[in-house]
Amino acid sequence: MFKHLKKRHLLQLFFFVLIGIIAVNHTLAESGGGISWLSSASLHAICPFGGVVTLYQLVTLGTFVQKIHISSVILMGLVFVLAVLFGPVFCGWVCPLGTVQEWFGKLGKKIFKKRYNHFIPKRVDKVLRWLRYVILARVLYMTAMSGYLVFADIDPYHALYNFWSSETSILSIIVLLVVLAMSLFVERPWCKYACPYGAVLSITNKISVFKIKRAETSCISCKKCDHACPMNIEISGKDVITDLSCIRCMQCTSENSCPVSDTVTIEPIQFQGGRK
Amino acid sequence: MMKRIREQTILITILVIILGGIGVTMATGIWSTESTKVPVKFETGDFEGEYNPEDIRGSYTLAEIASIFEIPESILKTAFGIDESVSADSFKSKDLETLFPEDVEIGNDAMKAFVSLYKGIPYELEGLILPDAAVDIILSQPLNFDETMRNAIEATRYSNYEATMGDVSDDGNGNATTPDDNETAESVNDATDAAEQTTVHETTEDEPVINGNTTFMQALDAGLSKEEIETIIGAEMPSTAMTIKDFCVNNGLSFSTVKTALTSKIESIQ
Predict the structure, then answer these.
(1) ipTM rounded to 2 decimals
(2) A37 plus A150 within the same structural domain
(3) Inter-chain touch A147–B241, beta carbons under 8 Å
(4) pTM
(5) Which among A164, A156, A155 is positioned nearest to A24, based on CA atoms?
(6) pLDDT in tens, A167-180
(7) A41, B35: Cβ pair inside 8 Å?
(8) At A129, is the secondary structure helix, strand, or coil?
(9) Over the Cα atoms of chain A, what is R_g?
């Protein structure tokens, strides 16, 4: 089981380090140094959400929002292909901000044991889950109206890799610190309640080719899948997981937490009849 | 037939799609993490099909300007008093600001003007200062500028500006400087000097209110009203997300003139 877990963690670490190296190299290149054979792209240029926020301007004016380039649009497209295939795997396997939250979450688990990730009452949690869609709508509208990256001022992902830069707003650093502090109590708080890109990708939970499926016939109702889910989804009560919060981290599957083989799996599910 | 997949398959697919996708778009020349350094072209008029120097950005290097506008690098260096040993691949148009005293605005706008006039394209020169060498080069070209235009070009001479400000200026260190000194001695050849001058700019000058990236929304945020902006651009304000520069370039307006008018309006409000 641990061997399988390592694969996702290794990929997360790979992207975390890769983006970190590029961010540092960008800073060095700005001051005339840096490693020439390594990408010195700005963080905005390699952020797929930049592709989302620039879409309106690209269609209406044929230009990109400030600091956004074609690379962001390409990455948006590539991540979208992945999402159509597997759902929001970008969130669970690639996004460095998600990775950092997980790392802080491990510490939180050690401190709070079983209470971890269960501090927020379900009713409140249910309402808060819609917040990221509100943020998404607001960010898209503001960016379309202004033509500049309004989200950068609060973006904790930008702060994570650019906290040393004068370009980074104090507000985004505060948001990052709050997110990291909250991660000690709640698993992936930014992903659950605030991430606008996660909101975009969440829709593919409904339409992706491959979905997580629970085989009712072999399920022993041990609820280990429920406990393993960082997004608090009640997997044991569903046949096919189409919950908008799912990040396809595969923690619930028989490869990881489910003790019965081939019971919680990811497989192609037809849109019609995919759910009982 | 349902086919289950394993984590390993997902991992490989992610790597193949993301890294492979980047690789393919790089190989095909689509991938770019920087602004495209290709200026817009004139769509109508006598210069239809030619690159518009008005679209030169501060990030363009001398080598890029030389290549795009087919002007020898040596001419650009001579015009702006840049030492021959300075790399044209690394010296950016905006770096011109580091070569001249703080109170003299010779930067990207001067580069645009020089390139325009060198190519025989009229340019709005009001308020501009050009190094004497640049003026000499322009006027030595077999161009069809009328007498008025030639006088306007002549009036941009740095030495004229100095004469207006006083025959001899002080360089801040108590040393007298002449136009010749500024054109030759103050080159980026001495990297330390250039860095020091850049620091002075960064610490003593505010960022320009209006620059090539400013959108109409930012002009509104700076305190201008829609009507004031429309009066200056002489047209209805387009999408607030559009950059003012793009609007000027698309509509055949001089960005420098519009920029100056908007900036002074904002300053008067403040």
Answers:
(1) 0.93
(2) yes
(3) yes
(4) 0.73
(5) A164
(6) 889 999 999 999 99
(7) no
(8) coil
(9) 19
